[in-house]
């Protein structure tokens, strides 16, 4: 009998250990607290930004709402609390790493360097870095920026990209870093910077929301594609599996495309402006074949 009890005890402990391992730290934390903390951006149009009521809305927020619904079902917590925490380009990764937020639902691009610190879902967007400038400046191409001051946002991939372009092409750029996209945009529109580098869609969003949209223009450029995803803790395969499964099923059902069209090809709040940003061929490929692979 004692041997049987020992065997049963060992078996039970093994089952509990396997169950705990399967759940993973993020899911364990969410289940224990009966709450999930979502990081959102305040001005990353149309991914995650503040609406007219100062509450976060956007493409990534809608995708994360589906993740929350899945967690409610999987964890059996119908009243799962959703806590919202604003993040910016500088603190979003540290807040993931220290557990302050469970998932970032913003407009963040993946890269091999970032994957050393955090994990990303399968790609939810494909973008290209670009330069936004004043139409009156007479600038046409990146080469025209030689020796000028340009703006980037602190903590953005654009910082390294702009530095690399400056060095590779011998432009000698003076790179000014805004604390967020709004400040970088102000550096441009106030004339303190000749151009603002960021992913094309984020610049398109800022341009569309500007009261002087016609005063802004893009420089002709053709840089490498970057892929966005929802961001969460590194080395947590079970949470990643859950998030990826939610997104992959949305893509397979056609719901992902509907959500995309809602934010990129129709009028969006608060000013009811249409970004007219059709889904790129690169993103269509990722929707057909979900992947989190990045090239650099």
UniProtKB/TrEMBL annotation:
Gene Ontology annotations for the cellular component aspect, listed alphabetically: extracellular region; outer membrane-bounded periplasmic space
Residues of the Solute-binding protein family 3/N-terminal domain: 35-267
Keyword line: Signal, Transport
Example GO BP: amino acid transport
Record flagged with keyword Ribonucleoprotein: no
Glycoprotein in keyword set: no
Signal peptide: 1-23
Family: Belongs to the bacterial solute-binding protein 3 family.
Protein name: Amino acid ABC transporter substrate-binding protein
Lineage: Bacteria, Pseudomonadati, Pseudomonadota, Alphaproteobacteria, Hyphomicrobiales
